[in-house]
Amino acid sequence: MAAAKTAPSKGRKARNPAPGGGSGGLELTTPDLVVLSYLVAGARHGHELDRVLVQHDVRDWAGISRPQVYYSLRKLARAGMIRAVARERGKAGPDRTVYGATPEGKVALAGALERADWAHQRTPPAFLTWMALSIHARPGMLRQQIARRREFLRAELRREIATLDAIQSAPDSQATRNALRMVDLTIRQFEVELNWLDDVEREAAGE
Fold first, then answer.
1. Does domain 13-117 have CATH number 3.30.390.30?
2. In terms of Cα–Cα distance, which of 156, 138, 159, 136 is closest to 148?
3. Per-domain boundaries in the chain
4. Model confidence over 27-60: pLDDT tens digits?
5. For 52, 70, 79, 108, which has the most beta carbons within 10 A of its beta carbon?
6. What is the pLDDT of residue 26?
7. pLDDT confidence band for 6 (50 / 70 / 90)
8. What are the backbone dihedrals phi and psi of residue 93, each rounded to the nearest 5 degrees, phi first?
9. CA 196, CA 200: separation in Å to the nearest integer?
């Protein structure tokens, strides 16, 4: 995780007034909002935007793929929420269009962030889904999956601790403070789940 972390979980949609105050509405998905937020921060072309998303570990907190970045750019441009501000010549490929957010786009983003459903979502963790279905698993699979999950969580915990150290050395800003809060929560969640896995393993050994 890093830097500007404001997007909700994958698949959520936010309804916003159509640009220009029309009576219609445009469904803005999480990828749309992530793309729009980064273009509010500064004009970029699609390749640079995707690179920045990777650099900021955005996919740790928002479901957005590289194809979705370009789809959202086209969608937001058609809606008038972003516009082309420059053309950049590619070194070994076609020219790239640099986009920036419009005033309508900034209003739409701010409006989407006021929706109550950001605070009312509960995304089911995949491991809990597996746990519910595990009564159909072969004998011994619970122990194997616990070991796999523990190994994964420990690796992710180390990564998040390293990220926390890096963020703490960054200049103070609202984005930095939000990132610290997000990484802190993620670390706490991993630690809680690791303790829970220990409890489950002990209980299962006595069954």
1. no
2. 156
3. 13-117, 126-205
4. 999 999 999 999 999 999 999 999 999 999 999 9
5. 108
6. 87
7. very low
8. -155, -165
9. 6
